[in-house]
Amino acid sequence: MLGRNLLSVNLLSLRGFSSAAAGFLRSGDTLKQNRVFTNEDVLEYSKVSHDSNPLHLDSEAARNAGFEDRLVHGMLVAALFPKIISSHFPGAIYVSQSLHFRLPVYIGEEIVGEVQATNIREQKNRYLVKFKTACFKNGATVIDGEAMAILPTLAAEQASTLE
Predict the structure, then answer these.
(1) How would you classify the pairing of strands 110-123 and 126-137?
(2) CATH number, domain 2-17+24-162, options 3.10.129.10, 3.30.428.10, 2.60.40.1220, 1.10.3430.10
(3) How confident is the model at residue 160 (pLDDT cuts 50, 70, 90)?
(4) What pLDDT does residue 3 have?
(5) Starting from the edge strand earliest in sequence, which strands make up the sheet with 140-151, in order?
(6) Could you tell me if 55 and 67 are in contact, meaning their C-beta atoms sit under 8 angstroms apart?
(7) For 103-132, what is each residue's pLDDT tens digit?
């Protein structure tokens, strides 16, 4: 249900790849996906996570706290990172994630999630990859951090943009 809100699913881009390595993740490559979070997304996440903070569920409480309106849960927005990675590398194992929440995300805003490979090490026919992670709205960073994932292959599936 959450996946139906993806705004764009783009084809594999060859920018940043040599013709011989096209479609294989290399250090410096960036994977992206856009998403608009809906009221339904926030309500479902609140139920599943048991996070009933009024900032997410009550417009008046959010405005009284100094926000424009209800906020999308930060962890729901950050869920874009493993979604991006696993959509390109099925079977990926998410190992760690650090997060810095920079700006609020409101229901209905378009968010661009990006993961950029910064370090790739082969280990026993699998790959330990360090990613720089960030989400943006209108060019402004709303979340950033780093993630580590174990990938079964460096061959990317065509789930969204690979630059």
Answers:
(1) antiparallel
(2) 3.10.129.10
(3) very low
(4) 34
(5) 93-101, 140-151, 126-137, 110-123, 30-36, 161-162
(6) yes
(7) 999 999 999 999 999 999 998 899 999 999
